[in-house]
Design brief:
Radius of gyration: 21 Å
Shape: globular
Helix content: 25-40%
Number of strands: 18
Strand order of the largest sheet: 5-4-1-2-3-16
């Protein structure tokens, strides 16, 4: 009898409840038991897991690694998908292997390159991947000079932290005065330049921002699965243009993504994002982790989470090509159950899981807030 696979996701995004669903609905009919930890007791990933625990707060990266090693050994974790403190964890890969745990994450050298967006842009530009013009700024004067140079070239300037994930800290610079237009409707990413300069000059510490032109849609996120031999097994683009989402296998997106994944050894799952600068795609960001929207590839007949777990366990899934491209779709929100207040949580049947222990979820992919993805007919 084939043994079950024990997978741990630490302090991951809410949307990864669908990553977990796909592991359970794997085409190999392999039993999967999922452990989740989080600092937020109301994270839906805790309710979606078979076993769950609160994470300790205030640990240094080194102390967190010790905590993670103890979790893996005590829980018998076969595959660990680290998000929090990924850099510190992958640096101790040998220690995790010694307790029988495979890390579903790139090597430390690859994580280090893409932790800092300036280093990342310099590195990918050196291998011939186009990047937008950029300035690293740490002061009001540097910001003003960068914005003026971009505007002189006909661009709208924006900035974001030099390190960070997602769209946290992203803002677009405007010369328009602050007015009721900023107070009507939903909050806007647009901020008047003079207010940003004033905030910087009155701040007690420097910032570390990347300033660049505001890039245009479509945005294409290429999900890659790469082996430890640096060969890409899967590359599929997910497109976003306003509300409309879709898929692409066009080489203008996939070729530079493969070049980055293979050239820097982005083993296992990564997500490489592009947008348009004028009439050509340029790199926007590289994530050395599974994307929150990875589950949307199920609309193309692909179970990427399970392929990644197989690869981490040494069972090469081979080249993965979508049998078809799903129709365009949109995302809408919906409910997702939470745990009672008390933790830790153990499912009553956690000791004897079937191949698909959880009730079958709806067919549709979902969004980060527990939102089903509604397809829109064309």
């Amino acid at each position: 009898m084939v043994s079950r696979v024990r997978v741990w996701l630490n302090r991951t995004y809410a949307e990864n409840v669908f990553f977990m669903d796909q592991l359970r609905r794997n085409p190999s009919d392999r039993a999967v038991e999922i452990h989740a930890t989080h600092g937020d007791p109301d994270s839906p990933v805790l309710a979606a897991a078979d076993t769950a625990e609160p994470e300790p707060e205030g640990l240094s990266p080194a102390a967190y690694v010790e905590y993670a090693l103890a979790q893996c050994e005590r829980r018998g974790i076969d595959v660990f998908v680290p998000r929090l403190h990924q850099s510190a964890i992958v640096a101790q890969r040998a220690d995790f292997e010694a307790v029988g745990t495979a890390l579903l994450a790139p090597p430390p050298e690859a994580v280090a390159v893409f932790h800092d967006k300036v280093i990342a842009y310099e590195a990918v530009q050196a291998i011939g991947v186009p990047v937008p013009p950029w300035w690293r700024v740490r002061s009001a004067d540097e910001l003003k000079a960068a914005v003026e140079e971009l505007e002189a070239g006909g661009h709208l300037a924006c900035f974001k932290p030099a390190s960070g994930a997602g769209g946290v800290g992203f803002r677009v610079i405007t010369r328009a005065p602050y007015s009721l237009s900023q107070l009507n409707g939903f909050p806007s990413p647009y901020v008047p330049l003079h207010l940003v300069l004033e905030a910087l000059r009155s701040a007690q510490e420097p910032v570390d921002w990347l300033v660049m032109p505001r890039l245009e849609q479509p945005e294409v996120s290429v999900d890659c699965l790469t082996g430890t031999d640096n060969r890409v097994r899967m590359a599929v683009g997910r497109t976003k243009n306003g509300r409309r989402r879709g898929f692409t296998l066009h080489e203008q997106w996939l070729e530079p993504a493969r070049r980055i994944a293979e050239g820097f050894g982005l083993h296992h799952l990564s997500n490489i994002q592009f947008r348009m600068l004028g009439d050509r795609p340029v790199l926007m960001d590289v994530n050395t982790r599974p994307a929150g929207g990875l589950h949307q590839l199920s609309l193309c007949g692909v179970n990427a989470p399970w392929a990644a777990v197989r690869l981490a366990l040494g069972d090469d899934p081979g080249e993965i090509t979508p049998p078809f491209l799903g129709q365009d779709y949109s995302v809408v929100s919906g409910p997702r159950p939470l745990l009672p207040v008390s933790l830790p949580h153990q499912r009553a049947d956690a000791g004897a899981l079937a191949a698909v222990p959880a009730p079958a979820p709806p067919v549709e992919p979902r969004t980060a807030a527990g939102a089903p993805t509604q397809r829109i007919g064309l």
